[in-house]
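Backbone-to-sequence.
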């Protein structure tokens, strides 16, 4: 994240926002200024742009708001860049089999292994659907305030300095 923050490009800001919000690439690249509410620090992704076809509210932490606040508003889309821009940037930074979706997986692993947040909160943050029809019928809330706390903890985790001497090795590169 520190290396990513040093890059002064729109793709770098988009990728950083994707990591901080655990959003899919398409959700980030399709985001418009009209979906952002700076007052409530909320991003509302309309159902038509969501994989599950349901509106998704995303809590925006301080760093996410800071990113958005510095961007030009020359287009309705927040990130008017190509569909491969995030992947290209990531592969430039870490060429060995890195994917943008891998950050969603990293978020899910972190939530399960490093926090005490219930599984349902992490799944809601990823906008995953509930496969059990009975449970889905009874669960009508979106756990928004719990997700706000979860995402703030994730942002703090992502901002931690890498331990000295630490290295990242791609599994396929051993």
């Amino acid at each position: 994240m520190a290396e990513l923050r040093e890059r002064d490009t729109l793709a770098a800001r988009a990728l950083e926002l994707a990591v901080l919000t655990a959003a899919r690439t398409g959700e980030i690249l399709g985001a418009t200024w009209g979906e952002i509410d700076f007052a409530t620090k909320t991003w509302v992704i309309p159902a038509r742009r969501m994989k599950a076809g349901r509106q998704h509210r995303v809590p925006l932490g301080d760093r996410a708001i800071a990113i958005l606040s510095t961007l030009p508003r020359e287009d309705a889309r927040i990130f008017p860049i190509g569909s491969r821009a995030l992947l290209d940037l990531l592969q430039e930074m870490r060429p060995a089999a890195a994917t943008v979706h891998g950050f969603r997986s990293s978020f899910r692993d972190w939530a399960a292994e490093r926090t005490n947040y219930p599984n349902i909160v992490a799944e809601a943050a990823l906008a995953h659907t509930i496969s059990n029809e009975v449970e889905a019928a009874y669960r009508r809330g979106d756990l928004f305030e719990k997700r706000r706390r979860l995402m703030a903890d994730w942002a703090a985790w992502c901002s931690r300095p890498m331990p000295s001497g630490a290295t990242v090795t791609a599994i396929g590169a051993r």
